[in-house]
Amino acid sequence: MRTMIALCGWLVFPLLLLTDHRGDDFWVVPFKAWRTTAETDPLVRLETGHVKGVRDASGVTNFRGIPYAAAPVGNRRWQPPFPVPSWKELRLATEYGPACPQQSQSWGPTSEDCLSLNVFTTATKRPTRPVMVWIHGGGYLGGSARGYDGRVLAHKGVVVVTINYRVGALGYLAHPALGAESTQQGSSNYGLLDQIAALKWVQRNIAQFGGDPANVTLFGESVGGFAVGELLACPLAKGLFHRAILQSGTGLHNGILRRQKAEALALMGAKTLGIDGTDASAASALRSVSTDRLVAAYPRPHQGPLRGYQVWFGPVVDGRVLPLPLDKAIQLGRWNRVPILVGTTAAEGIRFQPRAPTQSLSGYYTLLGQGDLGDTSGALASLYPVEDTAQLVTQSQQLVGDLGFGAPARALARLVIGAGGQAYLYQFTRVSTNASSDRIPAVHTSELPFVFGQVPASWTAYVNDGQAPDDAMLADALSDYWITFAQHGSPNGPKGGRKWPYWPLYNAKTNVYQDLGIPIQTRYGLRDQYYDVLDRLARQDGEIRP
């Protein structure tokens, strides 16, 4: 019988590939208040050469498109990242680097030469400031760093780094021919290795931007949150970061593929390219395939009944880069022990299950039975009953949100607390009104403009028109909480200096969490009757849950 985590993969993870982060269609809007002052644009000396950024009128400097690894092209395709060659001439860091190859065109130009990062800072001299490294989402198939503007956060006193990493076939192809030659003992986690290379670059260079390499916070959303969870379980990332924020994604999910399945999918895609076999000639043939053909050979999941979705890519537990899944790593004491802040939005499931899975009650229960879940599907049907077709949408949405996001977030907080660590739990609940006066619940990604401190007036899909005062206040609060956590390992900061309501440490007995809405409140017992059952089912199926 498949595990509960497998059901999570069927219901949620494939849909991340369809709904995650669509560039300018998402929330990214030019922040027109910023103006550049080219005559004062600063120079920074890196280990590989000099770069020149762009400083705006508020004093924030943005360095864009800085390479942190050599272009992974030719024989370096499907290899761990190589060091960047030095340059002698001044490098203008004024344009974002291309996104890594993907089917989506929302993020602008793409290229295999995509391993770059961006730095936002107000300081190039002492004292050093906390560093926040952002990992974008995109379902392991897409996304880019270019859409995330760190200037407001930088203006509040941190150094922000946003990174690109390989995605899709170029980032996670577990073909046996490539595994046989891998210097990482068969690892196919190239995208994860890119993230580690970026963190090592931060350790070596961030002091030149005024950042403190001894105080680095990872934060990411959706698959970016999964990546943060994977780095918590990754021994190669030990000492490279000191706090972790996981937004709407934890690493307790079915995106981590079993090697056998990952290799079978890789072979299936290679066959569509006319490449058979698992020897060195197959690896050579794969490297000769054009980027466009390679990306097209592994399609995005098609829309339709959930049983038709297929997860092509994700990290693999490989024995070295990822020796263990995150839950087992924590329980066995083999994780990167840092304070965490973790949570979700209140209506995660809406974007992943916008309509009823079928138009019949029997179809709903068939959905629960996918993967031959047996008794588990019966328990889920009792927990999320549907009496008429009107309930199909709401119950399937709630199930997807609880199973894929809410219950894992609470489970991770419990695992960390149980291991003697520190965890803070939240739910983002802001309900907004768009131009048509429609009330929009807090769906997946809704918190992002608030975290980055930017709620532009023209962004009306999920946020109040005209940046209502409440939204401006909430954006100020969330960005402050995140920055304070980066500074101190707690969202509260030093005693006596607190601006926003106190946020208690998570406690498994009271299930305390911070309700990030209007108003901000401390609450207890976040959907306990549902999460308790989901955790119990997970334990019955052999998953480690507290």
TrEMBL record:
Where the record annotates domain Carboxylesterase type B, the positions are 41-529
A Pfam family annotated for this UniProt entry: COesterase
Q: Record's PANTHER family?
A: CARBOXYLESTERASE (PTHR11559)
The protein's name: Carboxylesterase family protein
